UniProtKB/TrEMBL annotation:
Originating organism: Nocardioides renjunii
Name assigned to this protein: Amidohydrolase family protein
Signal peptide (from-to): none
Keywords, comma-separated and alphabetical: Hydrolase
PANTHER family named in the record: AMIDOHYDROLASE-RELATED DOMAIN-CONTAINING PROTEIN, AMINOHYDROLASE SSNA-RELATED
InterPro entries: Amidohydro-rel, Metal-dep_hydrolase_composite, Metal_Hydrolase, MTA/SAH_deaminase, TAT_signal
Amino acid sequence: MDDMQDDKQAENQRTGINRRSMLGGAAAAAGALGAAAVASPAAAVRGRGSHPDHGHDHGRGPREYVLTGGYVVSMDPAVGDLDGGDVHVKDGRIVAVGRGLRARGSRIDARGMVVMPGLVDTHWHLWTTLFRSMASSSPATAYFALNVANGVRALPSDLYQGARLALVDALNTGVTTVNDWSHNIRTPDHADANLQAHREVGLRGRFSYGTPQGYPGTSVIDLADIARVQREWFDSGRVPLMHLGLAGRPPGLVGEAVFRPEYDGARGLGLPVSYHANSTRAQGALQMVRQLAEQDMLGPDTQLIHALYTTPEERAAIRDSGASVSISPMSELLIGYGISPVKDMVDSGVLLTLSVDTLSLVGSADMWAVMRLTTGLHRGVAEQELSINTRRVLQMATIDGARSLGLGDVTGSLTPGKRADVVMVRRHDVATAPVIDVANTLALAAGAENVDTVIVDGRFRKRGGRLLDVDTERVVRSTEQAIAALLAR
């Protein structure tokens, strides 16, 4: 969710903790994951289009293996679906997909599983997981009020705790790539703490650097710190599966003296940009998307979030520019924005992707539920059961999500040459059996509890329904202690 509220006291409430002391405290708290839990992800991918190998430790599991005998849903039309298929992985890369593959390496039995690409969440405020399910019970806990109240007093370690819990939750549900839309970077220390969580947990995706809660709409984001973060974290390879972006503020929300230098600064650093735009009827009346187009700020490196209220001309501008839209149908309903325009976007040919948005509002990181709701919204608005098939919605949650983040040649499908981000879903669970139409089962029946195995960049992160290298009890306990301390402040 975008935050349109300013707080004049925000600047006076920024913490003065330095990075060295903060990271020392975060490291102490990070006993939750332990030394094994923070091993660098395997054969890592830096940047958005390239994927060189950097020789990182592969962590748990063999360097070369074949997933054998599963029902492979590749999401690649050239590969297709293979019942009784194999996926050969070496050094974190998919080598081959087929039947009866003769390959070296360990043989890992995938019979009884659907083998598919990891899910891609294209817009998630990870830090707000610190106050999961706290929104919307009173005026004081309305989403934006809650974000400002907790945001202005959040320490760097609070961002670390919220982001870490969210990333562990993502792994458990089968999300292997995430766009962390971090809209509470109050100081360089906050940025470093948030990124430390990514470094430890090790998902793929984007870190979208955003303004703090309560930040004045007349002040430009800290462009110097964005450049520092790019140097110290991304150019140096400290978060090798991640790339950097700008979580920006669009025309209509801020004036040209702010949105123009922010956009130009990000593009000057080669960074993609992301905007909450046309989220409400009032924002739709401002035609933020039209203004972005007139400012020449739409393109393949531009992501728009929510965009519930757009004109046909605006949707055509999004499509023709190559920009993408990330919808969050669960949060858009719960906050009262309205009905996600799934059918309008699909009919307009827009690159449409999915997200859970914020767990303070929606509670659950279950992208499977988001797929179900997306399918239902399209069919309900169309008043036609066959208006969209589940394969199309699976595409939104996998390959289209990857394309929207500039990672389409890296992940999003089980394609030889891409990195091995793989999820294995049990077919014989009470909640999924009997499986006749596999795409329907995935989009309409599956949930986090049916996710047996999660592989990120070739590394096993969940196996047999159990997270590996993560002490979940300590992660939960330290997060609970952090929110108790924040509320006490």
